[in-house]
Specification:
mainly alpha, 2 domains, 8 helices, globular
């Protein structure tokens, strides 16, 4: 978050600020790699499910969801959103688009933002250290055991 805030200030107050710019991590990483690092931080070997499969499984749980399920499985409340991004991703793969973000969205063009923001230009790809920090934060908030 600090990098996003710094990049926003650099771009807004820079001498060459464009009207539109994507403030997004300029070095995307593969989701499976991030999740492998999260698994390591958790000390678990949670299975990785493709988005379509995961959405189908959440949909199955949602069909007979109890009040407790709604409280403990927040994805149920966002099921329609997840279904829409899964559909877009499926379409993008059918069209054999190679560089896509989750949900079939195109990869953001960040070259303009990187040119203006030294903070974005210096960002390293997310990795295992970041995942361990996330897990540590989640634990400190009681989100995971």
């Amino acid at each position: 978050m600090d990098a996003v805030a710094s990049a926003t200030v650099e771009i807004l107050f820079g001498s060459d600020a464009p009207e539109i710019v994507n403030i997004s991590h300029p070095r995307p990483v593969v989701w499976k790699d991030v999740m492998a690092a999260v698994n390591g931080g958790l000390g678990k070997d949670l299975p990785f499910a493709p988005l379509d499969e995961w959405v189908r499984d959440v949909g199955s749980v949602a069909e007979g969801a109890s009040a407790n399920d709604l409280a403990t499985i927040p994805a149920i409340k966002l099921l329609e959103y997840y279904r829409s991004i899964a559909m877009l991703e499926r379409k993008a793969r059918e069209e054999q688009l190679r560089e896509i973000e989750v949900g079939g969205l195109p990869v953001f063009q960040t070259s303009r933002a990187v040119k203006i923001s030294p903070t974005l230009a210096a960002l390293k790809p997310l990795g295992a250290d970041d995942a361990r920090a996330w897990v540590g934060h989640w634990r400190s908030k009681g989100f995971v055991a």
